[in-house]
Design goal:
CATH class of the largest domain: Alpha Beta
CATH superfamily of the largest domain: Aldehyde Dehydrogenase, Chain A, domain 1
Largest sheet: 7 strands, mixed
Number of strands: 19
Distance between the termini: 90 Å
Bound molecules: nicotinamide-adenine-dinucleotide
CATH topology of the largest domain: Aldehyde Dehydrogenase, Chain A, domain 1
CATH architecture of the largest domain: 3-Layer(aba) Sandwich
Helix content: 25-40%
Strand content: 15-25%
Amino acid sequence: MDLSANGGFDVRERFAEGAQYVGGTLRGGTSGRSHPVVDPATGESVYAYELAGTADVDAAVAAAARALPGWAGATPGERSDAMHRFAAVLSGRAAEFAYAESLQCGKPLRLTTEFDVPGTVDNTAFFAGAARHLEGRAAGEYSGDHTSYVRREPVGVVGSIAPWNYPLQMAAWKVLPAIAAGNTIVLKPAELTPLTSLMFAQAATEAGIPAGVVNVVTGAGKEAGEHLVGHPDVAMTSFTGSTAVGRRVAEIATATVKRLHLELGGKAPFVVFDDADLEAAVHGAVAGALINTGQDCTAATRAYVQRPLYDAFVAGVADLFSGIRVGDPFDAKTDLGPLISHAQRDRVAGFVERARSYATIVTGGEAPASPGAFYRPTLVTGAAQDSEIVQSEIFGPVLVVLPFDSDDEGLALANDTPYGLAASAWTRDVFRAGRATREIKAGCVWVNDHIPIISEMPHGGYRASGYGKDMSAYSLEEYTQVKHVMYDNTAVARKSWHRTIFGDR
Ligand code: NAD
């Protein structure tokens, strides 16, 4: 393959020094354990690196702490200028980022080129602007004798932990609001996918963001991850990943009284009312279920279809699923790449195999003959609402469809899992749409679409999907703290309220 034709480069050469980025320098880890980056489309290792140990986390936190006074003390305009340059560097390297993201994740180049990378550039530009809009509420004389105002300040050194499904976008969602608000950060990407997080941090340095503001430690969750969460010099933990690991992270963060932001799992419902545009709903369900091979926390996973449309919806999805082209991520015709790993493929297949005893596998349910971690788009019907395949996050190209009769029933089923990250309602009736958007308990409800995200709007969960917001001005709230400053205006030594202590003396 001519690597340079599609932004390709030699990963081993580029990251020859290692997969830790500390204080603006790439270096090796010190855990004594090696980890591969595997191309999931071929099963071949494309790079191997030494995982970060606790000493690497300590070094990265120290670098972030050293960089903090300078970066927090920069003016909003200076931070904004640097972040605009950051967006320009990323944009100039778009093809390289798309290549590396496709290589380590198996994402079709079409997806990384049209979604992951431009989304990241846009996010960077958004936060470059947002850096100048940090404000506290108005000042005033609320007691009569004092003037109060609110300062908005960075939290300090942020420790962030990210998953493997959108490594570049997750790095962006963690790093950008943190640094826009004047914090410095240590990011721990998933062990399987360090490449674009490292490139992202390097691009920040290249753009003139001072060394130490953005650090990356690539280590195991139990070792580097837990050490980062528990680190006494880390003021805040921001975690995106599974609900199970999120609980563990919360335990550790609570012990050290850290601010915590959790973006956890999802099991998004896709509710189709009987007046919906069937073609739109069928295409929306297929795209919403299969994006990123279903490894998307907001993916459409449970379609509830009102009885009159149910048969036609199932037939339509089955037809489109059977035409999806599964294969080489670097082939422009490929619609669906592999899962992240063979372990994840086997996990997904396990859910489907267990479902055979209680549900119908309409299409898919098999892995094509290939050394890669591929799995065919799988449509499941006939499952009970309380069954595993309806309730658990599968994180693969599997869509379950269930019928409903009344609107009440459809909305109740949509809310009937522990999760609450995203959902969609499909209807041409404005009152039904209004009711669905009010009653579905999720951080995002789409009407007549499913998946689009934009930099200006918040992303985050309800219930077991976590708390706190990524993207948008709301995320800046997570990464700042407000301080009340109060000035005495009387200039008298004996304040009137001192009577509570001195009485009439
Ligand atoms: P995961 O929870 O297994 O791992 C996420 C990260 O946590 C990785 O970097 C991992 O190394 C680290 N980790 C693992 N154990 C740890 C521990 N004990 N302490 C500290 N860190 C630890 O998740 P995953 O399999 O990488 O990603 C898939 C999950 O992420 C899904 O559940 C998905 O829904 C979720 N996700 C959520 C969002 C969101 O915005 N809500 C976005 C993307 C992915």
